[in-house]
Amino acid sequence: MIQRVELEISSDCNAACPGCARTQNIQLVRPKNLTLEQIHSWFPDPQGIKFKFCGVLGDPIVNPQCLEITKYLVDGGGKIQYSTNGARNSAAWWRELALLGVDVHWCIDGTSTNYIYRVNTNYNIIKRNMQAYSDSGGGGTWIYIVFDHNEHEVDEARSLAGELGFKFATRTGMRNSLHTWQAQIGKKNNREVKRITTTGAKAHSKIAVVRELDAFIQDKNKSQEQTRQIVNTIDCKYHHGNEIYIGADSTLWPCCFLYDSAFKNKESINDKYSIYPSDWNDLNTYTIQEILSTPYYQQTLRDSWDPQHSLHMPRCIRTCARAGAYQNEIIYS
């Protein structure tokens, strides 16, 4: 039984974070928004389901029906968590949202420096929205990615979160630890390029584990026993967490990672999956239960963790083996 659903209710966004798949592949993006009608059809009884409004490409608060969708799911007994940059919509909008009891994860990476990674966002608007949400009884957590350029503002942000009645947590992402981003800041015709890095103690603690997994993936002489040992450590969001991912294009996936791969055709996933009809996981064609009852979800996905399988996606090992060592580290303080 599905207990958690990550909903990308919009593939549009007001920001242009340099590490985001959307920013890096903007030519592939066709902005879409899920509708209240679709959500009602897919979840006629949301009682007890935990919904995470996040996604690979967009920010949920950009969806013009975000409040209506939220109210429908909450009234139906669902629990909702937002992941958002918070730099959109009016104070009145945020006050109304607060009354719905949504758990908001405010993704804000600095105070005066937030705009460097969260390109195109305005911290004054964010602060106004946080205050409006707090004043109306809204809670949540300030999630802060620590980079070299913003580490000096962590204490200030933690203090501000406390004043608002929010929790505070720092986040470390593997991609941010393995890559350096280039952000273009400023007006259109006068762009300033800033280098964004995560080094030293700010880097992900399990980089060495992920590099070992990368070496395993590249090893053409790995034994069956080595494969068994690695595959048995996979912590799959769908198989082990009773979770599904629904993209703004209405497709259903086992996780955000494979949706991201499909968006970019990473590891030729779309070519491999062409053995299925083009609408094989489209919720405009099939119900959630019909899709989850297919051989892919019942058996093939799990079988494909083996590198010898024809539908094998190395990403399943890289992101979810060793109990998800690749995934974000979030530390509350």
Q: Any descriptors?
A:
333 residues, alpha/beta, TIM Barrel, 9-stranded mixed beta sheet, two-stranded antiparallel sheet
Polypeptide structure, described:
The protein has 15 helices and 11 strands. The protein has a 9-stranded mixed beta sheet with strand order 10-9-1-2-3-4-5-6-11. A two-stranded antiparallel ribbon has the order 7-8. It starts with a strand and ends with a strand. The longest helix is centred in the middle third of the chain and has 13 residues, at 123-135. The mean pLDDT is 96. It is α/β, with parallel strands linked by helices and 333 residues long. The chain has 2 domains: 4-201 and 236-308 and 328-332, TIM Barrel, CATH 3.20.20.70; 205-235 and 309-327, no CATH class. Strand 3, helix 4 and strand 4 form a beta-alpha-beta unit. Helix 4 packs parallel to helix 6 and helix 9 (207-218) packs antiparallel against helix 15.
